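Shipment paperwork, digital attachment
Item: protein structure file
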Amino acid sequence: MTSSTAATTYPTTPCDARWPGCGPPPDGQVPSRPRAALAAREQLTSTLLAAVASAPVVVVDAGALDFLDSTGIHGLVTAHHTALAAGGRPYLVKAAGGVANVLDITGVGDLLRHPADDDGSRQR
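Attachment content:
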């Protein structure tokens, strides 16, 4: 596989210019998903940490999410620990489909379950 083939094989990940580390890679390098994923993780984590620092209860609406991986789990768990240490509590609501599956598999769904969602439904 040649470099030009590799460059066309790996899809680029769109990212917001506000995220550090996003944007086109230097000439001659293949765009990579981890580059954007790491930047997204940092943005998500800093946003969640700011939210839990400013309010004792934070409700994260996951209704618009259609994908969640370890970078998102990292941000949610980091915010959870930070909030608990400060006497607060974050909750995650409206997760569905694959996002709800990831939350269930990792146990994070139960960790961040809102008290109003004690009916056992898969949607958070």
